[in-house]
Amino acid sequence: MTDASPEQRTALVLASLGMLEEPVVQFSARPGRVSIVHGTSAEVVWADELGLEKTSTCQFASNLNMSPVAGDWVSVRDGNVVEVSARRTTLRRPRPRGGTMQSLAANVDVVLVVVPIDRDLNLLMLERLAVMAWDSGARPVVVLSKSDGSTDVPERIIATKDAVPGVEVLSTSTTSGHGIEELRKLLHHGVSAVMLGASGAGKTSLLNAIEGTSEATRSVSRGGEGRHATSTRRLYRLSSGGVLLDIPGIRLLDLTIGQSGFEEAFADIVTLAQSCRFGDCAHDGDEGCAVERAVDEGRLAERRLLSWRRIRADLAIRDARERDDPATRSQTGSRPRRGRRRGP
After folding, report:
1. Assigned CATH topology for domain 266-330
2. All residues at 6 or more sequence positions from 256 whose CB lies less than 8 Å from its CB, including other chains
3. Hey, what CATH topology would domain 6-84 get?
4. What is the block-wise mean pLDDT of the chain (344 residues), using blocks of 10 residues?
C-alpha cells in the first residue's frame, strides 16, 4: 500500500499483531504490542509516525502504570514504553515465592491447553489448566498432543471431554501431522492465542509444526517431566494470520484458580446445584443435595464431583491466605451443615 496514509499503514501493522476493531484500544503515544519482556525493558513491535513497522527494545518509563507482559498493547515514545493499555484478558498464576499474582500473557482470545497423551492422562492437571484458562477471560481449547504415542486416542478424547465438558478438544501429532491443520484454522486473522501446559507437553513442537519453524525443543525425562524448551514469554505472528504466545511450562503447584474460572469449568455442577435444598450446599453429605443425587443416578461422574470438592477447597484456602486472616484460615472447610444426607 504505497499510497496508503500513515493512519492506514498503522492500522495494518496493528491488525497483523492481532488488533481487533472492537473494543477500541486507547494509546497515548505511538501504538505497539509487546513481543517479549526482558526485566525492565521489552521488545515491542510498533508503528512510527509514518505508519511503518518498527521492532525496538524499549525501556519502561519510571512512572509506568503497570508492568507489561507479552501480548500487552503499549504506547511508545522516545524509545520508552510510557503506558500499558487496559487488558481485555489476562492469564495469571501465583508468584513462585507467594504474594501477588503474576501475569503471564495479556489480550488473548484463545487458551490452548496442551496435554500429552503418550503417557497417563493427568486429569487433575487438565482440570486445573482449564480453570486457569476460563479465569483468564479467554476461550479454552484442549489440545491433546503426541497422539502418535497413544494406542487409545478415542478413549483419551472421551475422558478429556468428560473432565472438561463444553470445551473443544483436538488431538494432534507433530510426527504424523494429525490435527495440525485443524489447529492452524483456529489461529486465523484477528485471533491471539497462548499455549498453556506443563514442560514437555509438546508446546514448542506444536509451534514448529504449525509454522515449519525450528524453535529449540528438549526431550522429556523418563519420569515424563520436560525441561523448559521455552524460557520466556514470546509473541509469534503466524502465517495463518493469528498471533501465538508461547510461555514456559507450568507446574501443578503453579496453577491458580479463580471463582469465575472455577464456575465456568464446573458449569455442569453449578447448574445441578440450583436444585439443591440449601443455597450454600457443599455437595458433601448435605441433605437434599441435587449434585450428589445426580452422581447416585449416574448423571454425573463421581470423579467430577471429587475434583470439584478438591479445587473448591484449594480456592477457599487461597482466599483465606489472601485475606491474611488466621481465624478464617483455621476454619476453612468447617461450615456447619443444615442436615446430613440420609443416603440415596
Report:
1. Ribonucleotide Reductase Protein R1; domain 1 (1.10.40)
2. 92, 93, 94, 101, 132, 135, 318
3. SH3 type barrels. (2.30.30)
4. 86 93 88 93 96 96 94 97 96 65 90 92 85 87 94 94 90 95 94 89 89 52 35 76 82 56 79 92 92 92 82 71 48 44 44
